[in-house]
Design brief:
single chain; about 800 residues; RNase_II/RNase_R; Ribonuclease R; alpha+beta; 5-stranded mixed beta barrel; 5-stranded mixed barrel
């Protein structure tokens, strides 16, 4: 910050330049101090900032921070896409929300004399960068320095081998972006690949004619059965499956934790409550009424978490492998763990009757549900029981079994009583109330799809979630109190652009969305309450979800908007998340709890690098899991082409309508060209496609019937034909949908005797085709703005 100077009210350009020069660090008070503004000028400053936010020049970057619109974090993962006119490398962010800005900012890479080994990048590489804003004549907004190359460019393609009768074969790429770009494989280059094998192929130098040629590099096995479909996602996203020999050796040499340096909690009846098919159990809970007369109606809550840091030491082979993975990845038929099974399923799994090391937090909860105090302990514990959610809930509902019967009075009832109290604190906090159903694919013994279910949401689920949230908050508070660096779990508030878009949409339904003061989750909850029970309830829930940002990891804290928490860190799942392991190490160091602590040399800058890297691996896992589910369902439905299904419109784009089927949750596309003979406009405010001539409207959230036209199992793609007649919009005014009447002509019938050339002007037809081609590149089931958050 520069010295105060009394120069009168500064021009807006000067304020924007100051915000740009201090990315992520500027608040209203900082601006006032920088320009010597008096109290009388504060109102004018706030008004100017509101104007800059409204026009998109700047945005709120947190609770009290103003940042330049579309500002990049100081550390991020980027893809190096090419070179500029001077031959310098140019990169773009690996993750970019097109809803905020159509084009990602360009980053010029500069070479550092102090570059570390492994920090030399080239075109096509993915790298971890440290960036800072600049502005030059070529429109480059940032310059960056390579910290680490995460993934080098490879001239390699993943796909399915199709044999030729005369020897050799072809590669059918699994990447939708490469659909139709087959490769020719000569008889001597197949490495004995068989029809239906998943293979990776190195590209060979082009011959100038015919199909591009390739040579099989690796065979991963047959994907003729659905049981092996997860292999496609694993190899397509380069998710490591094998641990290094050094990591395996460390895991095998590890010994069970002992009482040395620990408190003895083996007599405390902690229990684990997990899904019935869980293979590792890393959290256990216990509750009892607080005997303190000053806390009548309050509870003492214990949450014990597997002591992974005891086995995975900083800088070890296990640590290096875990960081590369970032997290475990869960598929219907397998788990790709972050840690070897010797650690995750054995030494760190809190199985009943076995002494296990744990890092535990003891929390005192007041009768109002608010946490009064907490303390962390390194303990040796012994789980009293392993329960499933349904099993615990059944006992509370009056149907105990042989396991839960003896636990009902001494353990389960106090847990549920503590949850009822904790829920008061949650209700007072009023977090974002999007209770989203999650579908689960159940497989038969042969690996084929049996059915798709939506597991019932029970109080047992909510109990564990709320206790884990309380423990995560306690961990963040403990580390902040000691002023130690940590990795936060952060969730930014929606951007001004998204809030305005949501307001415009809700106006079409006459649903009030009056924002005054700071943006809070309660504002969205009021909207969800207003539409509860209405025909458009599902539609509004979808649009509210799409207005939210995506949660991520960061070494800088800007709060968790969805949970309405000022500080939050992941602490409760170190077996499957690297962020939690870092937090455990921080607590060991902060509280002097023994070996495995965060090194004294650890810096916020390095943790920023780790946070950026594991945010990418988290999104990689989510995408791989989603794609595998799509492929499994496409395989399941492949023999039902021609069948009809009911579903909802889950996405609306210029390419057409994305449909989510009710029974399986499968996503598929209805191309816009199949909607009829007239031209359809994309109405971004209404989230709808509207016929120019007839006013026929297809809107996000509408219940529709569709016919399955095509299934591509390898790509996980489905194509539908729409059977439901469209509603006709009488009023096209964006402020109100007005009365709607059913179209007497089906959307797939001929709506007019005019030819397509008459119905669609040529310039609009050309524009429509271009939009369709661009939209078709997006994943079925997601809109341009579709993005979700997870705590």
């Amino acid at each position: 910050m520069t010295k105060k100077r009394d120069i009168g009210f500064p021009p807006r350009e000067a304020i924007v330049a100051f915000i740009r020069a201090n990315p992520g660090k500027v608040g209203t008070k900082d601006i006032a101090r920088e320009f010597g503004l008096k109290n009388a000028d504060r109102a004018a400053l706030k008004e100017l900032l509101r104007e800059l936010v409204a026009e998109g020049t700047v945005k709120k970057g947190g609770r009290k921070t103003i940042v330049e619109s579309a500002t990049l974090p100081a550390t991020l993962v980027a893809d190096i896409t090419g070179r500029d006119s001077d031959g310098e490398l140019i990169a773009k962010p690996a993750e970019w929300d097109e809803a905020e800005q159509s084009e990602p900012p360009r980053i010029r890479i500069y070479a550092s004399r102090l570059a570390k080994p492994g920090a030399t990048a080239g075109v096509g590489d993915r790298a971890l960068l440290r960036v800072e804003p600049i502005q030059d004549a070529e429109g480059v907004a940032y310059r960056g320095r390579v910290l680490k190359v995460l993934d080098q460019a490879r001239n390699r393609v993943l796909g399915i081998f199709k044999s030729n009768p005369n020897g050799g074969g072809r590669l059918i790429p699994v990447d939708k972006k490469q659909a139709g770009r087959e490769l020719s494989i000569a008889p001597g280059d197949t490495r004995d690949a068989r029809d239906g094998d998943l293979i990776s192929v190195d590209l060979l130098r082009g011959r100038g004619y015919g199909l591009p040629a390739g040579r099989v590099k690796e065979r991963y096995g047959s994907v003729a059965t659905e049981k092996a479909i997860s292999l496609i996602a694993i190899h397509a996203h380069e998710i490591p499956m094998e641990f290094s020999a050094a990591a395996v050796a460390e895991a095998e040499a590890a010994q069970p934790a002992t009482l040395k340096g620990r408190e003895d909690w083996r007599e405390l009846p902690l229990v684990t409550i997990d899904p019935p098919d869980a293979k590792d159990h890393d959290d256990a809970v216990h509750a009892e009424p607080d005997p303190d007369p000053n806390n009548v109606g309050g509870f003492i809550l214990h949450v014990a978490i597997a002591d992974v840091a005891y086995y995975v030491r900083p800088g070890s082979a296990l640590d290096r492998d875990a960081l590369i993975r970032g997290n475990s990845v869960y598929f219907p038929d397998r788990v790709v763990p972050m840690l070897p099974e010797r650690i995750s399923n054995n030494l760190c799994s809190l199985v009943p009757g076995e002494a296990r090391g744990a890092l535990a937090v003891r929390m005192v909860i007041g009768a109002d549900g608010r946490k009064r105090s907490h303390s962390f302990h390194r303990v040796l514990m012994r789980s009293a029981a392993k329960l499933s959610y349904a099993q615990a809930q059944a006992a509370i509902d009056g149907k105990p079994d042989d396991v839960t019967g003896p636990l009902l009075e001494p353990i389960l009832k106090p847990l549920y009583a503590a949850y009822e109290v904790a829920k008061r604190g949650r209700d007072a906090r009023d977090p974002l109330d999007l209770d989203l159903p999650e579908r689960k694919i159940l497989l038969k013994k042969d690996g084929t799809v049996d059915r798709v279910v939506v597991p019932e949401r029970l109080d047992a689920h909510r109990l564990i979630e709320e206790f884990m949230i309380l423990a995560n908050v306690a961990a963040a508070e403990a580390l902040e109190k000691k002023a130690l660096p940590l990795i936060y779990r952060v969730h930014d508030e929606p951007t001004v652009e998204k809030v305005h878009a949501l307001q415009d949409f809700l106006k079409t339904l006459d649903v009030p969305f009056a924002k005054s003061g700071a943006l809070r989750p309660s504002l969205f909850n009021r909207v969800l309450t207003l539409v509860a029970g209405q025909d458009y309830e599902q539609l509004v829930n979808e649009v509210v979800l799409r207005s939210q940002a995506q949660a991520e990891y960061s070494s800088e804290n800007y709060g968790h908007f969805g949970l309405n928490l000022r500080r939050y860190a992941h602490f409760t799942s170190p077996i499957r998340r690297y962020a939690d392991l870092v937090v455990h190490r921080g607590l060991l160091r902060a509280l002097g709890l023994g070996d495995g602590a965060l090194p004294d040399s650890e810096t916020p800058d390095h943790l920023a690098e780790v946070a950026a890297q594991i945010s990418v691996t988290e999104r990689r896992a989510m995408k791989a899991e989603r794609e595998t589910a799509d492929r499994l369902i496409a395989h399941h439905l492949a023999d039902r082409v021609g069948a009809t299904f009911q579903g909802r419109i889950s996405g609306v784009t210029r390419a057409g309508l994305f449909i989510k089927l009710d029974d399986t949750g499968a996503d598929g596309l209805v191309p816009i060209r199949t909607l009829g003979t007239e031209y359809f406009d994309y109405d971004e405010v209404r989230h709808a496609l509207i016929g120019q001539r007839s006013g026929a409207m297809h809107r996000l959230g509408d219940v529709v019937d569709v016919r399955l036209v095509e299934a591509q199992p390898v790509a996980g793609a489905l194509r539908f034909e729409l059977l439901t007649q469209a509603d006709v919009l009488v009023s096209r005014h964006p402020r109100g949908a007005g009365p709607r009447r059913k179209n007497t002509v089906g959307t797939n019938a001929k709506a007019s005797k005019r030819s397509k050339s008459e119905a669609r002007p040529k310039h609009k037809e050309k524009s429509r085709k271009k939009s369709q081609k661009a939209g078709a590149k997006r994943k079925p089931g997601t809109s341009k703005k579709g993005r979700s958050w997870t705590p």
